[in-house]
Amino acid sequence: MKYLAVTGGTVSGLGKGTAISSIGVLLKAAGLRTTSMKIDPYLNTDAGTMSPFEHGEVFVLEDGGEADLDLGNYERFLDITLSSDHNITTGKVYSQVIRRERKGDYLGKTVQVVPHVTDAVQEWIEKVAYISVDDKQGPPDVCLIEVGGTVGDIESMVYLEALRQFQYKLGPENFALAYVSLVPVLGTVGEQKTKPTQHGVKELRSYGLTPDFILCRASEPLEKATREKLSSFCQVPASHVISVHDVSNIYRVPLLLQEQGLCDLLCKRLQLVGPSLPPRIPNLARWEDMANKVDVLTEDVVIALVGKYTGLQDSYLSVVKALKHGAIHSDRNLVIEWIESTDLEPAMKQTEPEKYESAWRRLRNCDGVLCPGGFGDRGIEGKILAANYARTNNVPYLGVCLGLQIAVIEFARNVLGMKTANSAEFDEKTSEHVVIFMPEISTTAMGGTMRLGSRLTIIKNKSSLGCKLYGGKTSIYERHRHRYEVNPDKVAELEAAGLKFSGIDERAQRMEILELEDHPFYFATQFHPEFKSRPNRPSPPFLGFILAASKQLEQRIEEGGGVVQVEAW
Predict the structure, then answer these.
(1) C-alpha–C-alpha distance, residues 309 and 372, integer Å
(2) Which of 276, 452, 560, 562 is most enclosed, with most CB atoms within 10 A?
(3) Cα angle value 334/29/210 (rounded, 5°)
């Protein structure tokens, strides 16, 4: 097993996740099997209870793990399936160490950060690295490790110490280290500044770690003089100082790294090539085709994303990626109108009429309306108004998780005449609960207590839109994250009025897919299909939504022999 650890300095948010995912693309294209893991130095057990405004989206894994959004980057770029164990947090590590202490596993020793916590981190990495994350048997060839935060943070010190020990345990031929840093340009002079990177590498060395590669984030390509200066002061070969400058789209990052020979350099550093080993030349032809295609798409499809957390777009990262995947496979350039749902509510018209008018004007100018997931009652009435607009004006609508429940509430109020219809989450006192709390869910504990992970959905009718979108399949597995469900006592009444639940769980108790008769595309899912979307294999609901918004869905179904066909690669 070979390991590449990636750390970062200067500032957070430099794109370590994108960098490590792009390196993985190169290695995979060179015929190597890769796995990846993220170290998050916070004390939370997982990301499940964190605010989207603070941490971005919670990415749900196949086994129900609630993880950092970077694991979504790994899965999408590398087309792999990770588990909750691939996200190491300080909360998880310390809980494990304390459990061991209580059991007496340390034989009366004084339990300390070094060696007990650092040993636990190394054991965790080694154990998880050998788990197959693709459809093949046996362990991967290379494990990519991202260390969250920035070098110098108190929270990260224990992990840097663990990696320092780990590199000597493995030997230099089995462990490499990359450091992601910022190379800013200040003022009007335009000179690329190297001091932040120099100081970051100095800090990293103080922990006993020396980078083999320096990945330099910059707005423009790294100049030769800058590269040579960093090489000299950071004691890294000039060829190992890699320019990761801004590119036209994210899919060009692996191509940028390959242009500078990073795959060959890394394979040589880890002794993955040699006289007795085959050459490692990445085949990036299909990846390059996709990157080129993204750049030349000119016909826009405009989607209104009506959300509660639009102030931080990372709150909906997987939704945005799934929309982009669908747009690529629909030959359209995606344009997102970010609409805060509270701006659509009548109260906003009284307090800030300009914001209210702007939100409605932008909504009406869109080709489709997307209502993503969320929690809490803030902005709910605005989402209901958006769903009503889409339903009554024949505008394509896609609801995800909460978006399905919103569609049910709106339909019950405005078609069935249940004026006080609501979810038990938003109004406990109403007598017309069309969405209820699931009986098996804990009412006291918050973390890890939702209906999580991959679950089976049965599509009841082969002529349904759901079946057509999923290529004719009647059994599908998608990932879930919810506490509330459609009230089964209201299903018959809703369906009699035209709101069909074409997808149900294996016990026929939970409504999983909703679609509306006599509408171009009014479709919602209780599950989160965005988590399994890939650049080469878009999520069926998102692809169908983009096709409908761009008026291509009927033609695509006809061309596919009655279903939507996707040419995956």
Answers:
(1) 10
(2) 452
(3) 100
pLDDT tens, position by position, 416-432: 999 999 999 999 998 89
d(CA 163, CA 465): 50
Contact of 22 with 257, CB cutoff 8 Å: yes
3-state helix, strand, coil in the chain (%, to 5): 40, 20, 40
pTM above 0.90, yes or no: yes
Average pLDDT in the chain: 94
Q: How does DSSP classify residue 78?
A: H
Burial status of residue 285 (CB atoms within 10 A of its CB: 0-12, 13-18, 19 or more): exposed
Q: For residue 75, give the nearest of 31, 30, 28 by alpha carbon.
A: 28
Cis omega (within 30 of 0) for bond into 115: yes
Does the pLDDT value for residue 55 go beyond 90?
no
CA atoms within 13 A on the CB side of 158: 23
Which is nearest to 301 in space by CA: 328, 322, 319, 321? 328
Closest CA to 204 of 232, 178, 223, 228: 178
**In contact, 412 and 432? CB cutoff 8 Å:** yes
The mean pLDDT of 360-364, rounded to a whole number, is: 97
d(CA 242, CA 214): 6
Which residues are designated catalytic? 401, 528, 530
Question: Which of left, alpha, beta for 379 (phi over 0: left; psi -120 to 50: alpha)?
Answer: left
pLDDT tens figures, 280-316: 889 999 999 999 999 999 999 999 999 999 888 889 9
CB atoms within 10 A of CB 306: 32
Question: What average pLDDT does this structure show over 354-372?
Answer: 97
Picking from 397, 398, 385, the residue whose alpha carbon sits closest to that of residue 342 is 385
